[in-house]
Amino acid sequence: MQELNIVKIGGNILDNPLRLKSFLLDFAALPGLKLLVHGGGKIASAIGQKLGITPVMVEGRRVTDAETLELVTMVYGGLVNKQVVAQLQAQGCNAIGLTGADANSIPATKRPVRAVDYGFAGDVAGPESINVNVLEALLQQGLTPVFAPLTHDQQGTMLNTNADTIASVLATALATKYQVKLVYSFEKRGVLQDANDNNSVIPAIDKEKYRQLKEEKVVSAGMIPKLDNAFAALEQGVSAVVIGDAAEISAILSEGKAGTLITL
Amino acid sequence: MQELNIVKIGGNILDNPLRLKSFLLDFAALPGLKLLVHGGGKIASAIGQKLGITPVMVEGRRVTDAETLELVTMVYGGLVNKQVVAQLQAQGCNAIGLTGADANSIPATKRPVRAVDYGFAGDVAGPESINVNVLEALLQQGLTPVFAPLTHDQQGTMLNTNADTIASVLATALATKYQVKLVYSFEKRGVLQDANDNNSVIPAIDKEKYRQLKEEKVVSAGMIPKLDNAFAALEQGVSAVVIGDAAEISAILSEGKAGTLITL
Description:
Chains A, B: Pathway: Amino-acid biosynthesis; L-arginine biosynthesis; N(2)-acetyl-L-ornithine from L-glutamate: step 2/4. By secondary structure, the first copy, chain A, is an alpha/beta fold.
């Protein structure tokens, strides 16, 4: 099986043009097949504010009303995605920007209204709903897919979808065709033994170690869903998951010398 | 050679949700290989106004300063493009939204400053600069490319490019691989004998007829560049060019019963 590296970058890089440029330079230089998933960043809120759209967050998630859906469709799917694609192209990486609507790559459904109405938030049923063949065709053409955190409902409406979810569902789906390594980039250098010391990276965590770390309360509440996601991806066939700093992407992927490697 | 239909739609449809929906229904139902190019529409100006960006037009073309470039990148490449893609997907047409940066499909150069500085306006050198192989690969995957009127300079910057130009350069480039029919859609039913009578469509114009029409001042100043472009495309290998109303796209393409057919 061919190797495929999937990297998810978040707002902390997207909001900083110099860090973004430096990351894209490193990412473009990575050998082999690769795929990038980007989040949103503060730019959507900043543009939304100018347009008179006030962000509503419930439990850390943006509530996507009709106006906000237009906002994120244009900012994530247009501004951020195309700037990332253009910069990768400038580095000789043949990037192609996608949302889940493009080539019907990630069909989703509007999240059912329960305690909270998240509006136009898209849930992906699972890796089996991903259109793997079209992604394989793009990769075999030498293209590097760059995903914005958007999906669609197959009925004409775009949906706002969490970038971590998109990265993990793509990784799991593509694990049927490739040996997939998934990197969640993050504002710290990895999972830290001491939250205040960015040099206290735990190099590797398996299930037993994770159980210990939770017992000792070393991993924070914010890190637990990331780690749970990572283990879920591994259980569904992803070869390796690394949590680390995007600034160290080459060390993480080419040398295995940075970040926290999650294994079963 | 396989047939490929390339359709360009402009602002008059994009600005009207019902007309757009109706057109996309018809377009999705067209048999065979196809490609859509869309313009911008008034939505960019409307959003720009809210953001405090005043459109500056010189000789009918938008001057693209840095702020306007961000605006059109998000509105054309994000909002308009993804809404069109999602609606086509809902009709079972496997659309994939692209700008010229994606897959380096349309490299361009920033227009040189002469009498007017158009800012971040992109000029395409010619059909030979189009990345035909990647478009062919997408079409052979059963995908329908949907182009926003944006290109890139291969140095990391997006560029604003006229949709008519994109449609004609793509048609010419793809004519090396396919039997290409190019439809310029338009707010009238075709080239009219009497500008005030939308039923006075001239069914066909060849070079000799065009010379006559110009002599008789039947064709307006606004129509001359469109017709010149059409003849240029035909001279470079495009099989047929039709100018007509997007509302009649099925009649134009499936039956050849609407619009003005331009031939050499």
